Amino acid sequence: MKAFPETFLWGGAIAANQVEGAWQEGGKGISTSDVQPHGVFGEVAERQPGDFGIKDVAIDFYHRYPEDISLFAEMGFSCLRVSIAWTRIFPQGDEQEPNEAGLAYYDSLFDELAKHNITPMVTLSHYEMPWGLVKHYGGWGNRELIAFFERYARSVFTRFKNKVKLWLTFNEINMSLHAPLTGVGLPENSSKAEIYQAIHHQLVASALAVKACHEIIPDARIGNMLLGGLMYPLTCKPDDVLKTLQENRSWLFFGDVQCRGEYPGYMLRYFRDNGIEVDITESDRQALKTTIDFISFSYYMTGCVTADEELNEKARGNILSMVPNPHLASSEWGWQIDPVGLRILLNELWDRYQKPLFIVENGLGAKDKLEADGTVHDDYRISYLNDHLVQVGEAIDDGVHVLGYTCWGPIDLVSASKAELSKRYGFIYVDRDDQGNGTLARARKKSFHWYKEVIATNGGSLKA
């Protein structure tokens, strides 16, 4: 492979609720993640004294971040995507003043990254929000949350303006359609109208955060974050192609609003056709005109779409409820592996928006085996990442402006979907199991050394 652009940022991505632990330290409040002990698709369990949640300690990044950042630096990271736990800054979500202990913690974290010349990319809300805002206000369905989020955003921009120049608003903002509690703090049985109203409030809040960032940190860049849910038509039947267009628009809509500053016509038609009335004020319309600087997204797999209801019914019985692509292999979790899809997605997003792109999540979850010599021979992960990064290089050659790549979970962490540690993504093994047993010791996997060489050669060591 020829080398990537000199300015290309290499690194990894983690989320506070999946790595930090310390769930009640430093004045932190309870978040939606804290009451989802079995992940984003699990039931809600109000916390009881003495109960156990795997995320309560997670991998103890809260206390061990200097050691972990040192390992990231050893690999040569130039960027680490992290999130701020909103409840460390505003424990209930509606306080007038931020929690100093939470601000001080992230000050220390960003200082540690600076010591190693690692650029932080910070997500404001990554699959969690204050549980107090759900209990007392009804989540994002309540317009009051816009002001609470703007206060939070302005607080962290003001505090960290000299330390953080890359920001993201909401992680995988389009996931609210599939996991409303995690995304917008609404019950799973909420109506489409209720979910889209909550999403609207979140889109307005995102735009106001972008405006605040531009005001407070003029030399910063702030982007959105989409779950890259690229779908293919199962056949070339026009009905399949049309349904695929509509399916892709269901998530691209979020990017359209955040990049173009208004609701697209196809979405207004969808609302009309489905009897959905979204309260959009004139001030909302003005707010949405503030657009993002770049687009970030996750990419794990693609799926197929068909108008054939019989096939759709069969697909609902599989783990992902999507029609599988007969031309692709799958991971042990049933996620189909499609490196070329990443090149297609990069080209489609570039053609659609003409804004810089950043791949902020991509990786392979697998059940790794720690050998007697303390290593993990994860050639399957190396193969997966190599093939995807080769396609990133191809997209760059196609003329796509790609800012960087932060693979998901550079260190083993608690999975979002089912709150498991057995589903491992990292280059660094963490000694802890799904029951919370283990020493939390860190060990370098084979992929650790592979990624270190990829970064050192700026992609030149990749095998096409």
Automatic annotation (TrEMBL):
Annotated signal peptide: none
InterPro entries membership: GH, GH_1_N_CS, Glyco_hydro_1, Glyco_hydro_1_AS
GO molecular function: 6-phospho-beta-glucosidase activity
Gene3D superfamilies per the UniProt record, alphabetical: Glycosidases
Annotated Gene Ontology cellular component terms: cytosol
Biological processes, Gene Ontology terms: carbohydrate catabolic process
EC number(s) given by UniProt: 3.2.1.86
Keywords, in A-Z order: Glycosidase, Hydrolase
List of catalytic residues: E361 (nucleophile)
Domain of life: Bacteria
Family: Belongs to the glycosyl hydrolase 1 family.
NCBIfam families registered for this protein in UniProt: PRK09852.1
Protein name: 6-phospho-beta-glucosidase
Native organism: Dryocola boscaweniae
